[in-house]
Each structure stands twice: as structure tokens, then as C-alpha cells.
């Protein structure tokens, strides 16, 4: 129904995960009808982020510097390495204020249905990172979902085979839930009860 | 949790209607992790559309030219003017293949809850457009929702006061539904049964 640049905009929006054809059309109409400034702001934010955001060389999270703030912080306990599925999960753990070690951010979980294997989520980089000779314990904090548990199993076996101590967040975290939605107290408790 | 350009991107996405904080974060991570090309494509589409898309001078729909294709088409019956709430509704009517008149696109409906009055949706422009001396009948095809019906009433009264014949799509369209989701046969039937 739309020609030229409007059709191109609807098409680009439709390619976003969770946005169907109708939502894409509604978003495009909303931006053009009520918020052209928002459209321009979003365009610039997309441009800036997609050119300047990269992965931290040490923990693989998103950062604009070669190494992220946490990895550069000399106050953190470098003997502890906590593995999470995403920057959002890292942020949830940070907000508890009860973890002072370092992180490794997998950028996903092993998911055969989505065609994501150990290589796709950076397990090789994790093994290299954990084998730095300083890391003593790896806390596996992948989500307590089926895929998160399977990922934890694969990672745990590989790390143990390299002589590292591997722990998992305590089951205080409700089964079936995703870490970023869990309340901070529960996460803090699970962290101190890790096994 | 995110700094600089990543935070700005999440914030811009969060301002879109129907996109909450978590969805914005997920969309941003998805684009940066899996689809930077898509992010750049979307940025360019937003930029292009927000600078080049304007309103048709005759029917008020979105177009990149001063006057849209349908308004320029000499084959259309200029005695008939169909009023719809959105370009999507116009597209739904076009797809039936059973309407050969012209359109006026309101860009919304009267909605006190959303702070949208007759002026905001372009009723003044509609009255001017319908008073061109050529238009004989105005078919009011606003949605069969409470707000669409109220809008139809306001428009209908104003048009009748100017001596124009005003019809409404027949009630073949299911009550409570939005036009763009209705099957084409129902719309075609409602069009021929207009009262
Ligand atoms: Zn880092
Ligand atoms: Zn037009």
C-alpha cells in the first residue's frame, strides 16, 4: 500500500524481532504522523550505536572502549568469573551490589532450535578467558530455563576439564524464569548460596 | 546498565508506542549482536521517510509527491469521496477492487481520551475538500468502533449541513472490529450495501 521511502521504512521495521507487518505499519505511521523528531533521533541512535558499539576484549559485553569499565576496575576480584547470557543479566547481578568479581557475557545460550551452538555464543572465548591463570572459580549464571541449564552443563564440563572450580547460582532463583526479571534480593541470596 | 550510544539507542526505541523498557533493550541487543546491517538499513529508512514523506494536498494521505497517485488518477469517479481513518484503511478498501471514487484520509479518529478532537484529525480540511463542487456523495468509512462511530457522526452532521449526501458503509462490517483486519469480501459487500 505504501510507495518508496514509506514502504522501505515499514519493511525495515518489520524485520525487527517481534514486530509483525501490522505493528511495523502502525509504528511507521505513528512516527511520520506524530513524532518525526523521534524518527530522526532513532535514526541517529541506530547509526551511532551500530558504528561505535563493540565487544569488550576481555568479557565480550557491549562497550564503546576496547575493554569495558568492569574489566578495567582494579577493585574487582579477578579470581571470580561470573558467566551470564546477556549484558542485561550482568546488569541485574551488578544491581544486587553483592558480587565483586569479573564477568564473561555469552551473548546468548545454546539453542539448537535457533541454530545456536557453543561456538555461536562464544564458549571458546570463555575457555580462553577463564584459562588466564588468575581465575579460580567460574560462577555459571546462565538462566534457569531449559536452554540456560543445557548451556550451563556444556560450559561446566568444559571448564572442569580444564581444572577450574565451577559453581552455579543457588536454586533460589525460581525455575523457568529469566534472570533479568527476578527481584534483586532473590538474586543476591542465590549468589551467596551458590554451590 | 548501558553507557553512551547503546543507552541512547535503547532510550529511542523505548519511546516507540507499544515498546517497553525490556523490549527496547532486547531490540537494541538483537540489532547490535545479530543485525548491524539491519540497524543501518533502519536508520537510513527512518531518515529518508521522515524527510521525504508528506501529506497529499488533496486527500491528506502519506505521499512523497505533492498529490498522491489516486488523487491524480483521471479514471477515478470524482463525485464520490470516501473518508477513512488511516492509509491502511484506504489500502484495505483499494484491495477490494470495488471502489472507484476518491478518498480523504483523516489520520486518526476523534478520541477525547487521547486528546484528539475534530481539528487534530483534519475535519476542517475534509469539509474544504468535500466542498469542491464536484463531490456529490461522501462515504464515511471510519472504523465501526465507538470512537469511529462518534467520528462518523460528527463528520456526517457537518457534511449534511453543507448539503452533501452522506452515506456510511453497511453494517456488514462486524461491530467492534477495525477495518484493516476485515476480510475483503465483507468490505466489498458493505460498500455496495452502503446506506
Ligand atoms: Zn569487559
Ligand atoms: Zn491524495
From TrEMBL, chains A, B:
PROSITE patterns, alphabetized: RECR, TOPRIM
A matching Pfam family: RecR_C
UniProt cross-references to SUPFAM superfamilies, sorted A to Z: Recombination protein RecR
Residue spans, zinc finger C4-type: 56-71
Keyword field: DNA damage, DNA recombination, DNA repair, Metal-binding, Zinc, Zinc-finger
Domain Toprim stretches: 79-174
Highest taxon above the source species: Bacteria
Gene Ontology molecular function, alphabetical: DNA binding; zinc ion binding
GO biological process terms, semicolon-separated: DNA recombination; DNA repair
Functional summary from the UniProt entry: May play a role in DNA repair. It seems to be involved in an RecBC-independent recombinational process of DNA repair. It may act with RecF and RecO.
Similarity-based family: Belongs to the RecR family.
Name of the protein described by the UniProt record: Recombination protein RecR
Source species: Piscinibacter aquaticus
Amino acid at each position: 500500500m505504501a510507495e518508496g521511502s514509506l514502504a522501505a521504512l515499514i519493511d525495515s521495521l518489520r524485520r525487527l524481532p517481534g514486530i509483525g507487518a501490522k505493528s511495523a505499519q502502525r509504528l511507521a505511521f505513528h512516527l511520520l504522523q506524530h513524532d518525526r523528531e523521534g524518527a530522526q533521533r532513532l535514526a541517529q541512535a541506530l547509526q551511532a550505536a551500530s558504528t561505535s558499539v563493540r565487544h569488550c576484549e576481555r568479557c565480550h559485553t557491549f562497550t564503546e572502549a576496547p575493554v569495558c569499565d568492569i574489566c578495567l576496575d582494579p577493585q574487582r576480584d579477578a579470581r571470580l568469573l561470573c558467566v551470564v547470557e546477556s549484558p542485561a543479566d550482568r546488569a541485574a547481578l551488578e544491581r544486587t551490589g553483592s558480587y565483586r568479581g569479573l564477568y564473561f557475557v555469552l551473548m546468548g545460550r545454546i539453542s539448537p532450535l535457533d541454530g545456536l551452538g557453543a561456538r555461536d555464543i562464544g564458549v571458546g572465548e570463555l575457555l580462553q578467558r577463564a584459562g588466564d591463570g588468575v581465575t579460580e572459580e567460574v560462577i555459571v549464571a546462565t538462566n534457569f530455563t531449559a536452554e540456560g541449564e543445557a548451556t550451563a552443563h556444556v560450559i561446566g564440563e568444559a571448564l572442569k576439564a580444564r581444572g577450574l572450580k565451577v559453581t552455579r547460582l543457588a536454586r533460589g532463583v525460581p525455575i523457568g524464569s529469566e534472570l533479568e526479571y527476578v527481584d534483586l534480593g532473590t538474586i543476591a541470596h542465590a549468589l551467596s548460596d551458590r554451590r
